[in-house]
C-alpha cells in the first residue's frame, strides 16, 4: 500500500466511508450486540466494500478486540477533518461524513462523486441501525459546531434572561446607553489599534469628534450649549464608551469632562458663552493642566503662577522651574487651549490655586510664544491619548480668562471671592471636579466586564480534550478551579456596579452639605473599582492562556489601557487614606457631639456585637442557612468596618499621647488606614447591592440570581479577609472552612447562570470583538 | 510695581538676594534671637539694600509675625528655581542662591554681574551667622541634587556591600554573566522598542545573531559544535539576557534552547553534525513545532502525522485538520527548519509522538511546497518574537530527518526503540525538554528583579512633598505602606532565586532516577517564580504611579512581555496539578513501602507536631525570638505542606470510595491540589534558602542581611496564609497579629539595606535604563 493518498491514511475507500460509524459504535469503548449485528449484517451487502474490506470490518467489530488507542484517535481525526468541509453552522450526520471520507479516499475524483452521494441512504440506514449515538460522539467529531451550540445552550440553560439583567443595570439610562452603542457600531468606529502613536491618536481624535457632533460630549452641559444638563447620562455614555476603546474614552473624558467641566464649573457665563458650544462639538479642543511634575498628589502646592498686572489688565502665567511644568496632560498635542491651574497673585499677594484659560496654539496649530509642549512619548497603554508636558514662560492673557466662579479680580484690580476662607475656597473648587472620580471607575468597570464576558464565554465554549480520547471532554468552566477564578469576579462586578450607581445618583442629586460624604465615597469607590479592574482582567488573561495573550482577544489592550486607572484621578493608596481620614473625623464628631453618651452607646454597640455575634455558638455556626443569611454577612461587614475604624482611632490617639506628631502617627498607621477605608467601601457596596436587589422585589425575574450574586460577593469577600476575622475571634476555624465550602457551592450554583450574567452586561458582540468569545 | 521681570516676582533685587536666608531662618517656623539679630544687624550695612528693603526685612524678621504660607512657599520656589541654574552634582550655599536671585531680579544685566558676585562674602558671613541650617532646608531648595545624594547615601548607609551580594547570586557563573553583560552594553544592543512588529523582529533577530556569533547560544552544545557543554552557563546567560529585552530572550531560547535542544537531545550524531554548528551561530534559524491549536496542554494527543513510506524511504508529514496546525510557534517567520512533533506511523501502526526535522523555506526565504505559515499577529507583549501557525500538507522528507535517539526506523522499514513501553518512551523524550522550565523562570526573575530595582531606587530618591512646605519631606520608601509593598518582594526575590539555583544544580547534575523529582520541582518552581514575576512587576508599577506608566520607565514592557510566562512552557495551574500528583504518588509510595509502620510513623509525626507545635502555649507564643527562629517558621512551612498533601490524599480517597471516578475526584480537589503544590514549593524554597545562607557561614559579609531576608520571606509567607494557619489552629489570633508586626519590623530593619539589596542583583545601569531609577 503506497502512502500517497488523500487524507494521508492507510485505509481503503470502503473502510474509510465506514469509519465514522465505527467510531460511533466504539465510542463508549464496547460494542453491544445490536451494534455488532447492524455492522456485520449490512457489511455483506454494501456495494462499496470489497472482500478485504469486509474482513477488516469483521475484525474491527469483534467485541473482544477493541481498537488500539491510536487507531481510534485516527478515526476521530479523520472524521473531524471531513466535518471541517461542511458548513460550520450545523452538525452533519455520520453518514454524510462517511460519504465525504469515501470520496476523499479516491482522491475526490469527479467521476466518482455521484457514486458516493448515492451511498448516503444505505449509510444513513446503518447509522439509524446503530441506535442512540451518544452526544459526546458527535462532539468529538464536530468541535466547532459544538462550541457555538454549547455557548448558546449555556445561555439558554440559565434561569435568568440576560435582557432582564441588562435592564436592571442600565436602569433609567438605557436610552443613552443604546444610543451610544449604536454610534459605536458604525463602520467609522471600526477598532484599529494602530501601532504608531501619531496614527492612533488621529483616529481617536476622529472618533471623539464624531461623538462630539452627535451631542454625546455635551450631555452634561446646559441646553443652550447643545447639552441636556444631564450629568447622569454623561456618566452612562462615558461608561458605554469603555466597551469600545479606552484611549477614546479617556480622551473624551479630558475634552468634555475635564476641560469642558473646568469651563462649566469654574467659569462664569462669559466663559460658557465663549467656549462651551465649541467645546461640546470638539471644534475647540482643550486640556486640563493641573498636575505638575513636582506635585503629583499635592494640588495645593502647585508652583505655576498667574500674576495680575493691573496696568494692562492681564495675567502673566509662568512656570518658575522645570519641575513646575504641567505633567501628563491629556489632549496636550491636539489642544488649542488649556485650563491652567496656578497660584493667583494679585497685588503681590497669593490668593491660592485658580484656573486660567490660556491659548496654546494658533489656527495653523503652531504653539504660541511662551508655550512649550513636549510629547510624553509611548506609555504602557492609552497610546491613543496625546499626553504631554507644558511649560509657560510669562504668557500674558486678559484677566477675563480667569475662571472666576469662586474668586475674581474687580475692575479696580482687587481680588474678591464669596468664600473668604482660602482653604474652604480651594476645596470647594476641587469639589466641583469630583465628577472625574465618579466616571473613571465606571469606564474601568466596562473594561473589567468586557474581560469577564470574554473569559466566561470562552470558558463555556471551549472544551479541554482529555488525554484519553474516549473520555468525555470537559467544558472549561466546569473545572472548579475555573469557576473559582471567574464566577466570584462576575458577582463582584455586579455588586461594585450597584455601589457605583448609588454614588452616581448621590452625585447627580448633590447638595453642598453632601459634598464631603460624596467625595469620600467617590475616592473609596474609585479605588475599589479600579483595583478590581486590574485584578479581574489579569485573572481573565491567565484563565484564557495563550489565546488570551493574542492581541485580537483584547486582554492586551484592556490590561494596558486600564492599568493607570489605579493611579490617575488620584492615586488609590492616597485616596484611601483620605477616606480613612474622613471616617476618623465622622468617628470623632459623633463622640464630640454626644459626649460620653456616645462613647457608652458605641461601647454598648460593641457589647451587643460581642453578645450576639461573637458568642461561642455563633462564631462556630456553619449551616448554610446561617452563612447565606443577610444577618450573618451584613453584620460581619459592618463589624469589620466599625472595628477597623475604632482601633485606628485608638492607635492614632495612643501614638499622639506618646508624643508623636500626627503626621508621624498617620505614617505608622498607613496600612491600617487603607484597610479601614476598604472595609468601609465594602460595607457600602454590600448595603447598596442589597437595597438594589430588595427594590426589585421577589417577583422580579432577576431577583433570585442577583440575590445569589450578592451572597457570593459577601461570602467571597469574607473568605478573603478570613485571616482578620479569625484573628478577631469573629469566626472560628470550622466556620472559616464552611464559608469556603459555601463559596464553592455558590460558584457551582451560579455556573449555569454565568453565560447569562455576562451577557447581561449588554456588550454588543461587535464591541466585545474577541474571536475566542464569539 | 510692574509685573514684567525675571523670575516673575514682586520683590526688589535686594530682598530677592536675601530670600534664601529668610527661608532658612523661618524654615522651622519660628525665629530665634540669634537669627533675628544676625539678619537685623547685618541688614543695616548691606550695600544692596535700600531703605524700603530694610523696612521689609525688619517686618519679615519679626518673631511675632511668621510669613504667610503662600509667601513662604514662594521663597522656596524661587530658591529652587535659582538652584536649577547650578550644576546638578552639588548643593550650593544659600549665599550663592542669594547672588543668583539678586542678579536675576535685575534682569541678569551683564554690567551688574560683578557687583553680585562681590556680594558673596557678606551673604556667606550672614549664612554662617544663622547658625546650624537644618538639612531639610537645603533639601527644600535642592531637590535634584538631593535625590541623587539620597540614593547614593541609601546605598552607603547599608551594612551590606552590593558587590558581595552579587557574588553570592552569581556564584560560579559570574564569568558567563559578566561576559553576557559586556555584550549587552555594546552600542549594537541599544534598546529600541520599535512599534511595528516587523521592524522590531528584525532588530531582535540581529541581536540573537550577534549572541550566536559570540558563542552564547551554543554554550550548552558539545565543544565540537562550538559549545562548552555547560548547561548551567547557558541558563545563567539566558537569565542575564532577561535584563535586556524579553523578546530577545525568548527568541534566543527558541533558537538555541528549543530548536537546538531538540536536535541535541532527540537527535543522533548525524543530526548534530549536520545542524548544530550552524544552529549555534544562528546561520540556521529553526523552530520547535510542538503545540497544536487543538492541543494546548496535551502533547500526547497531537494530530499531526508522519507516515513512513518504505518505497521512497520518506516520511510524509501532514496536518490532518485546521485544528492540527502548529500554534504559537516562536521563530516561525524567520526559520528555515522546524522540529515538528507528530504521531509517527510505520507500517500502518502509530508509534506515538516523535520529532522530525522539516525544511520550511528555501534560500530566498520562500516557503517550500506543502508548507503554510501564518503570522500570529500582535500579542500583548513579546512583539519582537515572530510567532506563527504552521500547517503541513503531505510534506515528504527523507527518513533520516527523524530525530531518532529514542526511536528510529531501520533500513528494512521496521520501527525500533530502546524503550519498549510507549508511555515511558514518550515521557523520556519529554523529560529531555525540561530545560525550558528550568530556564524560563530565571528570565522571569530577571524581569521581576529589574522592576524591583527600578521601584526601590525610585523610592529612595523621590521625596513626597508634604502639603505643608514647612514639614519635612519624606523619602517614599520611608512610608510604611511602600516598605510593605516592596521590601517583602525583594526578600522573596532572593529566596526564590536560591530555590531556582538549587533546581539548576540538580538539573545540570541529573541522573535518570532523579528525573521525576526534578520534573516536579521544575514544574512547581516555574509556576511559583512566574506568578511572583507577574505580581511583583504589577506592584512596582503601581508603587511608582504615573512615572511607572511611561514606557521609558520600563514597566510597560516588563509587564507585557513577562505576562505569558505563567502560561507558556506549561500553564501554571496545569503544572501545579502535576506537582500535586507527584506529591500524592510519593505519599502513597511511602505508605506502600513501609506498610502500617509508615502510617504509624506518619501519624506519630503528626502527634509530635501536635504536641510540640500545636499546644496552647506554642500557638500563642509571640516573642520576636520565637517568631524569627527557624524552629518556628520552618516547622510551619513543613506542617502546611504535609497537612495539605495528606488531607488531599484523604479527600480523594473518600470521593473514590464513594463511587466517584478518579478523574472526577481530581476535578473536585483542583484548588486543594494547587494549594498543596504551592506549599511544597514554598517549603522547598525556604529549605534551600536556609541551606544557601548557612553555607555562607556567619562571618560572610552578607550573612546577617540575607538571613533577615529569609526570615522576612518566611514570615511574610506565613502571614499570607494566616487564614489557613488560624483555621488549622496552628497559630492563635494574637500570634497572627504578632507575625504581622514582626513583618513590619523586618521591613523597617531592611529598609536601610534595600538599595544595596536591589543593587546586589547586579543589573548594570545601562540595562536598567529607566530614568526614574538612575
Describe this structure in words.
Chains A, B: Residues 287-395 form the Acyl-CoA oxidase/dehydrogenase middle domain. Chains A, B: It comes from Neolewinella agarilytica. Chains A, B: Residues 431-584 form the Acyl-CoA oxidase C-alpha1 domain. Chains A, B: Its cofactor is FAD. The longest helix of chain A has 41 residues, at 572-612. Chain A is globular, with a radius of gyration of 33 Å. Chain A folds into 3 domains: 6-141, no CATH class; 286-431, Beta Barrel (Butyryl-CoA Dehydrogenase, subunit A, domain 2), CATH 2.40.110; 438-759, Butyryl-CoA Dehydrogenase, subunit A, domain 3 (Up-down Bundle), CATH 1.20.140.10. Chain A is built from 31 helices and 13 strands. Chain A is an alpha+beta fold. Chains A and B meet through α4, β2, β6, α18 and α19 of A and α4, β2, β6, α18 and α19 of B.
Outline the fold blueprint:
The structure is a homodimer.
Chain A: H1 13-26, H2 33-43, H3 51-60, H4 69-83, H5 94-105, H6 113-118, H7 120-129, H8 135-141, H9 143-157, H10 162-170, H11 174-184, H12 197-213, H13 231-241, H14 246-266, H15 269-280, E1 286-289, E2 305-309, E3 314-318, E4 326-329, E5 337-346, E6 349-359, E7 371-375, E8 388-392, E9 395-398, E10 408-409, E11 415-416, H16 422-431, H17 435-461, E12 463-464, E13 474-475, H18 480-508, H19 515-543, H20 545-549, H21 555-562, H22 572-612, H23 624-627, H24 630-657, H25 662-668, H26 670-696, H27 703-720, H28 722-727, H29 733-750, H30 754-759, H31 765-768
Parallel strand pairs in A: 1-5, 2-5
Antiparallel strand pairs in A: 2-3, 3-9, 4-8, 5-6, 7-8, 10-11, 12-13
Helix pairs in contact in A: 1-4, 1-5, 4-5, 5-7, 9-17, 11-13, 12-14, 13-17, 14-15, 14-17, 17-18, 17-19, 17-21, 18-19, 18-26, 18-27, 18-29, 19-21, 19-22, 19-26, 22-24, 22-26, 24-26, 24-27, 26-27, 27-29
